[in-house]
């Protein structure tokens, strides 16, 4: 049984501001479902803000939560931070945490939004 962490809010509407495929997390889930592999989907909680601030500059975390990331940082990230992106950025690490917990119980697990984190302490990067 494959244990996959996924949240519908990982997927945000397509935008024209960069090359990031905002639908890729849904496509991963579609491919897994179509494969016929036995799978259980799990829904993550949002990563606690204090945990995010332990790893990233609290000022940057506030910028993301408030959707007030400077234009230069958004260019480096590759897209603008809006409410949908901010929510995904809070859910995705929660999904990684849940996948790690599931892997400890079931030997392996995955987060459908895994592999997209390229942040530095004070900014993101695409």
Strand arrangement across the biggest beta sheet? 2-1-3
Instruction: Please summarize the sheet with the most strands.
Output: 3 strands, parallel
Count up the domains: 1
Q: How many helices in DSSP terms?
A: 5
- The helix/strand series, from N terminus to C terminus, equals EHEHHHHE
Classify the beta-strand content into a percent band: 5-15%
The level of helicity is 40-55%
**Poorly predicted tracts of residues:** none
The dominant shape is: globular
Q: Which class best fits the helix and strand makeup?
A: mainly alpha
Rounded average pLDDT: 87
What does this protein structure show overall?
Helix content is 47%, strand content 8%. By secondary structure, it is mainly alpha-helical. It has one domain. Strand 1, helix 1 and strand 2 (39-42) form a beta-alpha-beta unit.
Short description:
By secondary structure, this protein is mainly alpha-helical.
Keyword list:
5 helices, 3 strands, 8% strand
Fold blueprint:
Elements: E1 2-5, H1 24-35, E2 39-42, H2 49-55, H3 58-66, H4 71-77, H5 83-106, E3 110-111
Parallel strand pairs: 1-2, 1-3
């Amino acid at each position: 049984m494959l244990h996959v962490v996924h949240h519908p809010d990982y997927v945000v509407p397509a935008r024209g501001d960069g090359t990031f495929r905002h639908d890729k997390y849904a496509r991963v889930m579609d491919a897994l479902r179509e494969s016929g592999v036995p799978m259980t989907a799990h829904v993550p909680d949002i990563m606690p803000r204090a945990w995010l601030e332990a790893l990233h500059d609290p000022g940057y975390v506030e910028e993301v939560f408030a959707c007030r990331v400077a234009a230069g940082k958004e260019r480096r990230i590759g897209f603008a931070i809006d409410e949908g992106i901010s929510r995904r950025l809070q859910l995705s690490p929660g999904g990684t945490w849940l996948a790690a917990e599931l892997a400890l119980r079931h030997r392996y697990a995955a987060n459908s939004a895994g592999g997209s984190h390229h942040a530095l302490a004070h900014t993101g990067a695409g």
